Amino acid sequence: MLGRLPNRVQEVAKKRYREYFLKDPNHPLLGRHQLHDVRDAPPNNISVEIYYGYRAVGFFDEPASCYVWYWCGSHAEYNTRFRKGR
Questions:
Q1: Domain of 6?
Q2: pTM of this structure
Q3: How many structural domains is the chain composed of?
Q4: Which CB contacts under 8 angstroms, 24+ apart, belong to 56-60?
Q5: Domain at 56, CATH number
Q6: Residue 40 has pLDDT above 90, yes or no
């Protein structure tokens, strides 16, 4: 998932995940918001900013009691894939 992104984006995404998301998934730096009506995706999807122009999408896995990021990509890709009405 991260491997196809530029190296700098990968570095920042990992840092934001470790230093911000794991400690406080609602940290303002992450620009987190709920996604609604996402096709072919688990319920309760969230989106967070991982770098300028890049986002990650994930959900809270109840059995594991943790968030799982299952997609990372450019904001343009995000808009095409996840935004309502696109």
A1: 2-82
A2: 0.84
A3: 1
A4: 56/13, 56/17, 57/82
A5: 3.30.2310
A6: no
Give the C-alpha separation, 39 to 84, whole Å.
10
DSSP state letters, 18-77: IIIITT-TT-GGG--EE--S-TTS-SSEEEEEEETTEEEEEEEETTTTEEEEEEEEEHHH
For the chain, the distance separating the N- and C-terminal CA atoms, rounded to the nearest angstrom, is 22
Q: What is the pLDDT of residues 6-24, one digit of tens each?
A: 999 999 999 999 999 999 9
Mean pLDDT of 61-80: 89
- At 86 the pLDDT is 47
